[in-house]
Amino acid sequence: MKRTATILFVVSSAAAAALFPAGCGGEDNSVFNGSSSGSSGASSGSSGFPIGDNDGGPNNIQFASLRIDPADAVVEVDLGQTTPAKDYKVFGKRTATSAEEEVGSATLSFDRIDAAGFTGKSLVPTGFIGAKGTVTAKAGGVTATTSATFRLHATVGTAPAAGIITAMNGATDAEAAMKLLYPYDKTVFPRGIPGPLVQWNGVTGNNVYRLVAKSATFELTAYTTSTGANGELAFPTAPADVWARLADSTSGAITVDLQRHDGTKAYKAVQQTWTVAGANLKATVYYTRLSNTDAFVRRIEPGKTAQSFIQKQGEACIACHSVSKNGERIVASINGGASPWGVWDARTGVRLYQSTQASGFQAISPNGDFVLWRHWNANGFGTDGKLYLSTYNSDATLAELVPPAGMGAPSHPVWSPDGKMIALGMRNGGDGLNYAAATMALVDVSLSGTPSFSTFRQIVGANATYPVATYPTFTADSKWVGFMRANKSRGSDADSLGELWITDLTGGTQIRLDQANGLGALTATNKSWGPSFHPVAAGGYFWLAFYSQRSWGHHFTGTNRQLWIAAIDANPTAGKDPSHPAFYVEGQELDSTNERPQFAVPPCKQAGETCESGYECCDGRFCRKDTAGKMTCQEPKANECAQIGDTCKVDGDCCTTLKCTGGTCQPPGPK
User: Fold this and answer.
1) Is the confidence at residue 414, as pLDDT, over 80?
2) In DSSP terms, which residues pair with 134 in a beta bridge?
3) Comparing C-alpha atoms, which of 523, 611, 601, 521 is closest to residue 566?
4) What is the pTM of this model?
5) Residues 292, 243 contacting (CB under 8 angstroms)
6) pLDDT value of position 429
7) Fewer beta carbons below 10 Å: N end or C end of the chain?
8) Tell me: the pLDDT tens digits for 417-460?
């Protein structure tokens, strides 16, 4: 479903907006080194002795210390404006006890070039995003730093009469009627996706609404009106994408106040807190659309329109799919029944191989070169008691995955992102399509030399309430496994119930993902199935796609299962729910059940191609700004540390405070 903004953008835009791509700014430790705690604006040498290398003092005078004025400045700027600028002066002492003198030849720089830049001694805002950064002064061999914060303001919609605004500002009556339906309180959003469609109900008559969304570096005020019980507010995208500017300006909390005036009096605001993760989520979700007439794999980038991309040759359905971590290949089964498997190019949808062997569900390796298949063995959905390993373009068996006797039939296999493990359900009752009992296991896999499987172990046992544990999915660092507990293997039946869980690799720490399941927001918290983690962590979080029977505000209140995404803390600990409330994947079809989401990154990009995050680039290249001001894939400079989203092998590859999580540099998870 594609939607357009319903309110009018009333502040001006600036040419500077064209210079910086959406989603590239505001990251902690980003390419702009955006995190700064500030300082007094002073820096001193040692024991009052002159130090340095004659790099800027008047007549090459060396200094013992410098001071920047103003220190820790905060500048309020309207979105799209390049005023007001902040003028700076630098003062220095030649010795620890000498008088200060102005150092007119000192050089000044600001590390958040997306937010502001120096023209002479004036720090001029771009008006593009808000940010807190570091001002650096150098002279006479000495360096001083201080912080500068540019806080942007935007007003959208038509402001009501002054009397209504005054009444809203002074409201004392609690809001008893209006209920904010979507987003959920405490939702975590990544950058790089469209803004949420804010929805509410419970009111009557004509009302004026004001929404204020505020972070440390951005404040948005939006006005709209509506008649009747249901209301909504969309973040406008023209002439500037206000949500993108807000998200790119923010890494952390956004406080949200929604307030109304009913024509007679104003009510106190309904309040929520959202969080913006300090990184882009570049992702494609591949899912099965179940309609009354067909079942085919489709794909969607959150906020865009769903696509039917896969090459068809008269099949009744193409489903039960798995996507390689690198986003290059997809394996799926065709025509139902025995469901033989095939492989397609995920970029073009062209079929690469079609087997005649029954399979049902199968898994493809992270690099797309191998397929593990034979969830079931014929039209009756029986089992061979084992799975078969082949290359992606042949069903010749390279190795067999045979579980120990008595563990059950292997089902719903999935590869770990590091390629070293397989997680799978072990069904113990019913057939491969409909079963009502399953545990979950891990097995090690080696693809070097002669492929082999070893160390088969159960990690999740039976649960009396929900006896099926299946649909495993690994976190980006391959250290945790998400899964569903359910009353049956199929989540699309009318009587299906299911919950999302996560476990460590031993099964010793198992945590129900209460917030992702809807605790506190939904009446029924057992209507979620089929989890799939994004293969790359972003902003200190893992990102979990799943399908669920729940309403999307008042826009969708039916029983079709729909796609949702939830943030999961990248450092789960026993006894604490690491999940956060989910957000809806806009752009999917409302008239069908959309199930079995599979997250993947787009196929990697070559040197010179545009990018938003380093993990989009091939061969370990970084995503950096080129000479034309565009973010492109580039070779790392000598001794350059990897920033957020860049690829890495160990923590030492990453810049200070970042961790190498699942092959990319990320900030530590929330504490």
Assistant:
1) yes
2) 147
3) 521
4) 0.89
5) no
6) 85
7) C
8) 999 999 999 999 889 999 999 999 999 999 999 999 999 999 99
Strand partners, 156: 9, 222
Q: What is the number of residues in the chain?
A: 671
Dmax (CA) for the chain in angstroms is: 92
Q: Is residue 2's pLDDT more than 60?
A: no
pLDDT at 91: 97
How far apart (Å, rounded) are the C-alpha atoms in residues 83 and 44? Answer: 32
Positive or negative, the CA dihedral 190, 196, 202, 203 is positive
Residues 6+ away with beta carbon under 8 Å from 434: 381, 488, 489, 490
Give residue 615's pLDDT band: very low, low, confident or very high (50, 70, 90): confident
Could you report the per-residue pLDDT of 331-342, keeping only the tens digit for each? Answer: 999 999 999 999
- Checking 96-105 for CB contacts under 8 A at 24+ apart, the result is 96/44, 96/47, 96/48, 96/64, 96/65, 97/48, 98/64, 100/67, 103/56, 103/57, 103/58, 103/63, 103/66, 103/137, 103/139, 103/140, 104/58, 105/56, 105/57, 105/58, 105/139
Pick from 145, 117, 144, 143: nearest CA to 129 = 117
Residue 46 has pLDDT above 50, yes or no: no
Structure tokens at 311: 């090459």
Task: State the pLDDT at residue 273.
Answer: 98
Instruction: Give me 531's structure tokens.
Output: 């989890």
Instruction: Write the DSSP symbol of residue 605.
Output: B
Let me know if 502 is exposed, middle or buried by CB neighbors in 10 A (0-12, 13-18, 19+). Answer: buried
User: What 3-state DSSP class applies to 294?
Assistant: coil
Helix (H, G, I), strand (E, B) or coil at 668: coil
Which tokens sit at 430? 């019913």
Euclidean distance between CA atoms 109 and 103, whole angstroms: 15
Distances (CA, A) of 429 to 20, 432, 600, 646: 56, 9, 32, 45
Q: How far apart are CA 115 and CA 124, in angstroms?
A: 9
| Nearest 10 degrees: Cα torsion 505, 369, 447, 407 | 50
Which residues neighbour 597 within 8 Å (Cβ) at sequence distance 6 or greater? 285, 286, 287, 530, 532, 545, 546, 547, 563
- CA of 95: how far to CAs of 140, 145, 290, 504, in Å? 12, 19, 77, 59
Tokens of 16: 């500077």
Residues 6 or more apart in contact with residue 508 via CB below 8 angstroms: none
- Summarize pLDDT for 273-319 with one digit per residue, the tens: 999 998 888 889 999 999 887 799 999 988 789 999 999 999 999 99
Domains of the chain: 15-151 (2.60.40), 153-276 (2.60.40), 284-600 (2.120.10.30), 614-666 (no CATH)
- Residue 151 near residue 77 (C-beta atoms within 8 A): yes
Q: Which of 522, 531, 592 is nearest to 564 (CA)?
A: 531
Rounded distance between C-alpha atoms, residue 405 and residue 386, angstroms: 11
Instruction: Answer for the pair 269, 260: CB distance below 8 angstroms, yes or no.
Output: no
Cα 276 to Cα 121: distance, rounded to the nearest angstrom: 33
What is the number of alpha carbons within 13 Å of residue 515 lying toward its C-beta?
19
